[in-house]
Amino acid sequence: MSKKSVSIFQKLKNNSEKIAMLTAYDYSTAQVLDEAEIDAILVGDSLAMVALGHENTYNITLEEMLIFVRAVARGAKNTFVVGDMPFMSYNLSVEQGLKNASEMIKAGANAVKLEGCSEHIIELTRRCVECGIPVLAHLGLTPQLLNTIGGYKIQAKTAETTELILESAKKLQQAGAFAVVLELLPAESAEYITNNLTIPTIGIGAGVGCDGQIVVTDDIMGKFTDFAPKFVKRFANLHDVVLEGARSYSKEVKEREFPSKNESFELSEGEKEKLYANK
Ligand code: KIV
Asked: 46 CB less than 6 Å from ligand 1?
């Protein structure tokens, strides 16, 4: 199998097939998602909270993100990888955004994700695409704007605000974005936006009417348990699996059951006697 390209997004939408995306932050998780043939992986800045324990996504730098992008890219042999541009790594100027987006690509990402739809983001999207950097847009609840939005609030709750998001999505589509993440929208609003765009929508907390879905892997696998938004469904319970494993390990160490001969190495014949000969 060869590395999937950005064209799979449009191909799946055109065939009315749903797009399944997940997040990954490390090599071994990327390998598993690759084996599962997930359509695309996002190295989301959610890793600031989920993997690094920060309260929000503000406290992750581009340099830190690049470490995780490199690890995921090494594990995702066939899967398309999107690198999330962290807070203020693309907002100062188009040049800054382009330079930093290129760092993501050099680290192994196949595309970048940009939050929002200001004139600056539209221009940056256009310039990235011109330079060969595919852009995944992100509208609705955009966590990097949490302080101005005023918290994790459902967006597009009225016909009017739904139209505003559609308008923004159309501008990003026009600028060359290959798809748009819609976060935390009523299902009907997200479906309406989806039906009025030619590029695919990838929903998170936005109902079944989107062209695809994305969720944080650690949330749906039950590994990150600090909180669980309503849109998170548990597909596994890694927290309990790891907890049980850690407890069994600790018990066996304390009871001298681990490591057994199976997990140990032995001196060759006669060497042990030599060790103790002079004692
Ligand atoms: O950072 C992230 O993981 C995201 C999502 C869309 C899941 O932006």
From this structure: yes
User: What amino acid positions are annotated as catalytic residues?
Assistant: 183
Scored b (16 or more CB within 10 A) or e, 200-226 reads bbbbbbbbebbbbbbbbbbbbbbbbee
Is 2 inside any structural domain?
Answer: no
| CB of 204 closer than 6 angstroms to any ligand 1 atom | yes
Q: What pLDDT sits at residue 228? A: 80
Bridge partner list, 180:
137, 201
Asked whether residue 88 falls in the same domain as residue 203, the answer is: yes
CA 251 to centroid of ligand 1, rounded, Å: 38
Q: How confident is the model at residue 199 (pLDDT cuts 50, 70, 90)?
A: very high
Mutate to test the pocket of ligand 1, among 52, 216, 223 (most ligand atoms within 8 A of CB): 216
The answer to whether residues 271 and 169 belong to one domain is no
For residue range 42-75, what is the model confidence (pLDDT) as tens digits? 999 999 999 999 999 999 999 999 999 999 999 9
Residue 22 Cα to ligand 1 middle (Å): 9
231, 247: one domain: no
106 part of a folded domain: yes
Domain-embedded: residue 1: no
pTM: 0.95
Averaged pLDDT for residues 100-128: 98
> How many domains does the chain fold into?
2
Residues spanned by the domain of 258: 241-276
Establish whether residue 214 lines the binding site of ligand 1, counting it when its CB lies within 6 angstroms of any ligand atom: yes
- Mean pLDDT for all residues in the chain: 96
101 and 115 together in one domain: yes
Give the HSE-up count for residue 116: Cα atoms under 13 Å, Cβ half-sphere: 18
Q: Is the CB of 142 under 6 A from ligand 1?
A: no
Share in percent of the chain as helix, strand, coil (round to 5): 45, 15, 40
